[in-house]
Amino acid sequence: MRIDLPRLLGGFHRGARDAMALTPPRHVRRLLVPLPSTRFGGTERHTAELAARLGQHGVAVTLAAEPALLPLLAAAMPPGQPAPRLLPARLGWDDAVPPAVAIARQRAGTEALLVAESPDLVLLPLPWPDAGLGVMRAVAGRGLPRLVALHLAAEGPPPPAIATELPALDAEGAAWAAVSAPVARRAAAAFGLAPSRITVIDNPAPRAGTEGRDAARAALRTRLGLRDDQPLLIFVGRLEEAKGADLLPALTDRLNLPIAVLGDGLLLGHLEAEARGDPRGLLRLMGQVADPGPWYRAADALILPSRLEGAPLVFLEAAAHHCPVVASPAALEGLGPDAPRLARLAAAGDAAALADAARALLADPAGTAAMVARAAAEAARRSWPRALGAWLGQLRLAAALASPHHAPLAFPETAA
């Protein structure tokens, strides 16, 4: 069923402080997605897919991001969907400077973008709670309807910059969504919101299956010089401590099994040195892989040793391809109480516990097969059509929360 997004979003506006005050409809035609990221990962892939799918519902979508990210965002667009307009913009959060400087730079870039684009509504994806404070200041200052989408948030005190900026963010005037319940809970505390104000929207899983498993298994084992019966583990993700990539050498030592590492990141040099120093050649660094699908189909298990995750797309990819998953407790926190049914959870997040969990998985083929079937069913449940309806609902809420007394920009239909 085709959803008319302009009608869905433009039917009415309800002031955040005048909840039932109806105003004449102003149809939303231009949606701006300012992405404050500096690197490409799950948040950015999800943002590209969502922007493309929103474009099929009658709204012009502009995705603005750092110039270096634009080719990666373009490659992540789903086939068969109208690609959003990609616009270079200096919006990335700069960790190398004091927060006040980063906020000022980001705010200036956003102000210029808002003047040039005159959006009717803003969808702001946040890879981290404080990654878009300058964008939030600029958008809130103009009174624009906005939906903030949170992808990751750590346990513990929120970044101090949020408390400093909070009075100028008008957090109550925005609609909010998060990809998991833990992220929603932490973000609500950081931004002074009631937990019920942040809607949890499950990340969708890719459509996949088991087709070509035997061929992929044979081809990749030949490429790696492995025996047909030799177990193969894989790691997919950024090579950084938050993803647990530093544990991979110790895992190869404890398991005496090859681990194919798909990804790039700050720890690449360290892992290359570890790989060169291992005469067994168990740590195989394959670099960034555009399509990890064949690797999921070929592997005996995915190792997911993350110390912090929002809603791991890598797990959903593996589940969709019927690849078993061995994970740290933190890696699948977003799945809540279902996590032990869907993956082999380690007792802790260290290499010893992860190795024990991997051995247990490999030693129990019947139990692993049942677990894989449950995970595949969960991946199938998390479809884009289902998620898109939830995102459209939050965009409608964002339009309803916009103050009818504050005209943020001289839109063509309301210009004097």
TrEMBL record:
The lineage of its organism: Bacteria, Pseudomonadati, Pseudomonadota, Alphaproteobacteria, Acetobacterales. Gene3D superfamilies: Glycogen Phosphorylase B (3.40.50.2000). It comes from the Bacteria. This is Glycosyltransferase family 4 protein. The keyword Nucleotide-binding does not apply. Residues 40-204 form the Glycosyltransferase subfamily 4-like N-terminal domain. GO terms for molecular function: glycosyltransferase activity. InterPro entries: Glyco_trans_4-like_N. Pfam families: Glyco_trans_1_4, Glyco_transf_4. Keywords: Glycosyltransferase, Transferase.
